[in-house]
User: Which sequence fits this backbone?
């Protein structure tokens, strides 16, 4: 069975602070994919990143960076110099390899960035 | 690229009405589409997986006769909530995944969701 744990239910920061959202996953698959999605108050899900299990390189995209560590089954997401527009619920998700490509979502972390 | 359109974005209707929600992939062919339900302040729960031209696969606990899913083409899937009741009120989100194989590892791209309110 697959499981995604986002232990932080809510995080509140002040603009320009850096913030890290934690994600820990469980899977028995050797090939799997990890995702981060952003859900702003308007409700749509915005795809941020996909990482496969064989690629442990960290990734940076503008103010966003992701740290994937297989040894600790974690795929953490850091926003540098946060902005009010970053306020949203962020979901970490996992899909397996083989015939199981269904997404398993974590419970989400509500990030509030205050001016 | 990879745009998914979901319509309508908001529905308010009376109890007993059937409601149809459309999910379209605008710039790619979606071999597989997924339907999720999200209650306020909760995560997305997968309801069913639909592959073009075949019957949908429903998750445990989801009533097939209540939530009818059709995926008649590579760009369109529909979810019909039959005889809706207030407890069916929720946020429904579809996603679409491309690729040539049923078990594609392409990422899912999500529609904007439909807020369904049953009075």
Assistant:
């Amino acid at each position: 069975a697959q499981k995604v744990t986002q232990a932080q239910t809510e995080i509140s920061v002040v603009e320009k602070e850096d913030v890290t959202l934690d994600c820990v996953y469980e899977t028995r698959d050797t090939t799997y994919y990890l995702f981060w999605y952003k859900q702003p108050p308007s409700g749509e899900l915005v795809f941020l990143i996909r990482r496969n299990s064989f690629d442990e390189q960290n990734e940076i995209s503008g103010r966003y960076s992701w740290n994937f560590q297989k040894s600790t089954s974690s795929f953490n997401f850091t926003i540098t110099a946060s902005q009010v527009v970053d306020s949203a619920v962020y979901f970490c998700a996992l899909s397996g390899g083989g015939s199981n490509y269904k997404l398993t979502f974590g419970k989400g972390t509500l990030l509030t960035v205050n001016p | 690229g990879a745009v998914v359109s979901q319509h309508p974005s908001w529905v308010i209707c009376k109890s007993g009405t059937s409601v149809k929600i459309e999910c379209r992939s605008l710039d790619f062919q979606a071999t597989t589409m997924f339907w999720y339900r999200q209650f306020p302040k909760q995560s997305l729960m997968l309801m069913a997986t639909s592959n073009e031209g075949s019957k949908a696969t429903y998750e445990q606990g989801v009533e097939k006769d209540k939530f009818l899913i059709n995926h008649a083409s590579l760009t369109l899937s529909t979810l019909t909530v039959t005889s809706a009741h207030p407890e069916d009120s929720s946020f429904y989100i579809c996603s679409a995944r491309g690729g040539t194989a049923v078990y594609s590892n392409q990422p899912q791209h999500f529609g904007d969701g439909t807020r369904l309110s049953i009075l």
Notes: The radius of gyration of chain B is 14 Å. Chain B has a mean pLDDT of 90. Chain B touches chain A through 23 residues (CB under 8 Å).
